[in-house]
Amino acid sequence: MKKIILITGAAGMVGSNLISKYINKDFQIIGIDSLKLGKLKYIEPFQKKKNFLFFKLDLSKKIKNKKIENILKKNHLYEAWHLAANSDIQSGINDYEVDLKDTFLTTVNTLNFINRYLKKNTKFIFSSSSAIYGNVRGSISENYKKMNPISNYGLMKLYSEEYIAQIANKNNFKTYIFRFPNVIGDNLTHGIIYDFIKKISYNKKILNVLGDGNQQKPYSDVLEIIKCMIYIKNKKFLKNINYFNIGTNEKGIKVREIVDIFLNKTNYGTKPIFQKKKQGWEGDVLNYSYSTKKINKLGFKFKLSSKQVVTKIIKNSVKLNIK
Amino acid sequence: MKKIILITGAAGMVGSNLISKYINKDFQIIGIDSLKLGKLKYIEPFQKKKNFLFFKLDLSKKIKNKKIENILKKNHLYEAWHLAANSDIQSGINDYEVDLKDTFLTTVNTLNFINRYLKKNTKFIFSSSSAIYGNVRGSISENYKKMNPISNYGLMKLYSEEYIAQIANKNNFKTYIFRFPNVIGDNLTHGIIYDFIKKISYNKKILNVLGDGNQQKPYSDVLEIIKCMIYIKNKKFLKNINYFNIGTNEKGIKVREIVDIFLNKTNYGTKPIFQKKKQGWEGDVLNYSYSTKKINKLGFKFKLSSKQVVTKIIKNSVKLNIK
Fold first, then answer.
1. Residues of B in contact with A112 (CB under 8 A)
2. Which chain A residues are within 8 Å of B149, Cβ to Cβ?
3. Which CATH topology does A188-218+250-288+304-321 take?
4. Among B62, B100, B108, whose Cβ lies nearest the Cβ of A108?
5. Which of B62, B96, B166 faces A112 most closely, judged by CB atoms?
């Protein structure tokens, strides 16, 4: 009877970094990924390990997989980390099906697939998003109820939260719903730094920036995010459904500053070109800040500021991908 | 430039009865139905009419239909009645995909299909359900916020409401969300009377009733429901999103009483057999009553009591289907 850690979105940035934390411990890890955004190379280091099994499965469709079912039947589903989602918000703007399928249906199908193994002593951990709040002024706590997501991505994350809560109350298992800020780290699959690196590899003369550059958002390091989630999920909670804003408790960094740090690092003399419109894309939340008092009270504080994180990841990524 | 009335779920009980109200007026009617539950014979009377066009389409999948698009492009989408849904709550208990696809995705795909034609002067009318409330004591008003649906059907109706609200706020059109009680009428496709008629056609000696017979629910006549919706949607509202509980303002009729009326009418000396469990099925809401003060204040009152409606429809259905 082994303790199973099931991770959907295993080949993504969060998933692959999470596996690093579990791989040398006494767990059997089941990783699932459609490889739409996740990359096989991110999980290659784990493939030779006996306690890691990878399944390429598209969770946007109803799942039948006897091999996984047999493992779950004979062992103990200790934790399920549901990280699979479309993480490229912009791609869901023009095609509503992207987030419907890859963000919402992945949640519904994952829960229904592992439903009978989600017992009272199983922890279900979900990577939700600050995008569920939409454009809100002031510092938002977890109890804020007037959610108004402005992207399909945010809406489908919100529906996912609701669906998880519904099933958790019915089946009586513990859920940890973490509302992410912008998360960056090694193994990027999307986002501003990822885009900049791609753009500059094609054209070193100019860098087209989405929006007027004044969008300001908090960024957190994926390693701190994972550390925080592990810290929190090890605490005991009475309720079945527990929500947490995670990330730094600051207003974040402006797109302009990210551009400066990036162009300073790449050092090609590239000229940044900003747009006149404020939003980088439809569904771009211009600025938000949410309260992380709840996790702080529980004893966790993020160490790196948005600027420090951005600087660190630009340094790592530019080194890895451009040189 | 014609005024278009688009009706999804056109071959269902509500849809087919609604078409009767519009068919002799100066509208072009577009009817859509997957015919999973709806029946062609219910819309046969309209098929010879010039102003009625029927399309067999499964709205649980992304829709592309150039013929409908061309009509919508050249004319004015006056009203969209979105009635398509799985209406057989029990079928969604064992297979979560039924309501996910036929109740929720039909809503998402319908809205996205007609999205660009939903203008400020278009009315979008949706048949929601009292099932979104779940097991609640007391009389529930439209402002009640602690929804806790206990069936997939209720949950997917709730998600549909939310999705409609989201799009209506974005695109700025008027929506009328009607939360239905149990609705019965001619052209039944499901429900207790439909089941009883099927059961007794196989076996006249005994009638197996689901649950202990004490479940009590309000029933309304489909013709009154339609009358009410038409009355309400002709009123002007300032808000884009308007919710209405519709039906009688009474506690309803017990399953036991329905059994009595039915067996009295069929008159075969059939013996009813009740179960020990209270719920007829998982997801069966035992009793609820909701406040219809809002529609009453607007000037609409349902005339028939649950008992009168049940008696009327049993009389009609038994005559039509059994003799």
1. 96
2. 166
3. UDP-galactose 4-epimerase; domain 1 (3.90.25)
4. B100
5. B96
Q: What fold is seen in the domain A3-183+219-245?
A: Rossmann fold (3.40.50)
* Alpha helices in B88-191, H assignment, sequence order: 91-94, 96-99, 106-114, 152-171
* Domain residue ranges in chain A: 3-183+219-245, 188-218+250-288+304-321
Enter the DSSP assignment of B117.
G
Between the alpha carbon of residue B96 and those of residues A40, A113, B45, B215, B262, the distances in Å are: 31, 11, 35, 24, 32
If chain A, 323 residues long, is cut into consecutive pieces of 10 residues, what is the mean pLDDT of each piece?
96 96 96 96 95 97 95 97 92 88 97 93 96 84 88 94 93 95 88 91 94 92 97 93 92 94 94 93 79 95 95 85 47
Residues A145-183, buried b or exposed e (16+ Cβ, 10 A)? eebebbbbbbbbbbbbbbbbbbbbeebebbbbbbbbbbb
For domain B3-183+220-245, which CATH number applies: 3.40.50.790, 3.40.50.10190, 3.40.50.720, 2.10.77.10? Answer: 3.40.50.720
**Half-sphere exposure of residue B243, counting CA atoms within 13 Å on the CB side?**
20
**DSSP classification of residue B238:** S
Q: What spatial distance separates the first Cα and last Cα of chain A, rounded to whole Å?
A: 47
Cβ contact B75:B2 at 8 Å: yes
Query: For B99-153, how does the pLDDT look when each residue is reduced to its tens digit (9 = 90+)?
Result: 999 999 999 999 999 999 998 899 999 999 999 998 887 788 999 988 888 889 9
